[in-house]
Design goal:
single chain, 759 residues, alpha+beta, 7 domains, 40% helix
Amino acid sequence: MNEIMKTLLSLSFSGTVLIIVLMLFQPLYKDSISKSWQYYIWLVVIARLLCPWTLDISLSMPSIDIFPKIVFKSEKTAIDVKETASDIVQNDVNKIYADNTSDNVSKVANSTDNTETPFIQFLQPLSDALHLIIEKIHIIWLVVALFLFMRKITIYQSFARYVYASSIPVNDIDKLEYFGNTIEQSHVKGTIGLYVNDVISSPMIIGFFHPRIIITTAILSSENSFRYTILHELVHYKRMDMLYKWLIQIVLCLHWFNPFVYLMERKIRQVCELSCDERVIKKLDVAAKREYGDTLLDAIHTGGSYKSIPTSVTLNESKELLKGRLEAIMKYKEKSKFTKAITAILTILFCTSAVIINVYKTPSTASANVGSIIYENGEYYIMAKGASEADKPSGGVTDGSIAITIVRKDSYTTISPFSNMTKLVDEVESQCKYMLKHENGKKEDADMFMEAAKEIQSIGQSGQKHFPKLNKKSVTLQKGSAFSLKMINTDKKAIWTSSNENVAVIDQTGKVSAKETGKAKINAKIGNIIYRCKVKVTDKAAKKKYAKDYKKKGIIKKSSAYYYKNKRLRIFMDLKTDNSFVYFKYDEKGEVDLCVRRAENGSISKVEYMTSKEAAKILDDMDIIDSTEYGTPTSVYTYKEASRGNKKDAKAYAKVTRMLKEELPDSVTKIINSCNSDKWYLVSRNGRKYIYYDGLPYNYAFKTTLNTSGVKVNVYDMGAQTGNYVLLEVKQKQNKPLNIYYNDSKISYKKITADTKSV
């Protein structure tokens, strides 16, 4: 059954319990507790009927299946009409999943066919039709609810137009002056009109935005009747009783199938007038109370024949209520402090009961332990609370299939493969049952898998077996170009975002525009699921332009080396005005060091040789030493000694060394070869740590610093787009925190222990 319908039925059931409680205990509190309390306490019931929220400490009522299972029995078997023959075959296959032999499967299928007697085959279409109605019952409910609501609005509009058309503004100066004074004394804000109409059956207040009090000529001509009628209607206005009545009508429309809601509406109409009377007579003496009672009688006898509607607020709605109202007026007494205390206790108890009473909760896509769901390379990753993308395991599935993985901070659980979107929920449920039966997983995991499966299946197109996905997993764009991404196998609209809008931006139609060289991730979010495409932006035009700019300044490229005035360049650095790199190259066979500086408009403004001191600083900061192909260790020292600049006598606190994969121990090599690209890792082995990242588009340099928060390793892009990996060995004397930065931005990384191969 539709989840919305289940929630509505549970709300209706919970509200009915509260209605019955108030009705049963009414004889006990009818004459003891104030009418205002009896009027407003129904708001608690209305809130319960409208709001699905409940506390987790609910007084758990037994789960009630509104539409119980229907079972047809034969001599040999009983078949649940909620299951089809294929479902039964699937369930039996799961029971022998461990054996997984074709003979067993064949036996199960044959045994199932034999159980379907002609009688069951005859009833199967009826059961299918019944369950089709059950599955679509929310549509019937919605159609009726909308019809009733529109009908109520139409009736109200017709009633208001008729009353307005036959109403005449009161022009008696004395009455208008008294009316104005009464409004002021009652501290009523806003403008209220005063009209006379002899076709209405009783005085009333009508209108939301332009409220009017409408009375009969007989009421207008009687000083007492006019005075008390005005007081009565102003009380209705101040309490916003018209809004209250419309709220009740909304509840009636939503719960039109529940007879107890109609009883509640009738009771509220009765107590509304009683509580209003109570407010008016609160400060009246006995004689004034009699005069007020006479006003109620006058309203009955002097009105016209045009009846009011439930959404209008009238002075007197029916003769059958009049007797009770008159009795209540004459018996009214100010409630004692003891009674008020009891009333407060009853209110707290009733409100608490309403809050904790159990309500069916629509399964949420993201429970308290679940973050977002990320789809990459055929795998849905359920990010459990506390997990980051660095915790995602490497994986892959056969094309056309998917896997679902729960990712936690220190572990993950996967179920797979699934190849048919229309049967995903059933297949996931089958695997979860098998997992729980054989104690291979937790109930919490099974719940997460089920909710993810429902979300995935709800996004896919009806009847389409293929899973929703982006038309591209990854794309390489030239700077300034564009590409259109789109979701396929779904008709749901995605919300598009970019992880790095400096590199690539995307509009809400899915058009990706390449801005600057670099990498970005484009996310398409539907519901709670994020579908992802990796974008790489390159700039061939910029390379050609830079080559022309260099040539104009006498910088010539021969093979892979650069020359200036016939001398080979060792350090060749091209800087923007903010000192960021346009291009950087280190050539150990070079003779001279050169720095190119650019103006704001990007043109080369200066070409100059670097001094030996400047070159040495670059070599030291960037860990580029010409004695080796890949660099030598960079050391950092204890914080106090480093801050004093006393490195000569200080003992090295940590060493960070650039490495090649060929130099790694076999256990570490095996680990990094299984790592995903575009993810940072910290691999530990025998007290040493290795920082690894595969897929860097540039050559890189790094700088190591030490501060109170730990060792900081900052990896920098150097501009040359040759593609590379980052591999650094870290040796520490103490296990102080290691912070990894990429281009001055701190990144998260996944920790792996090479010795135990455990995450």
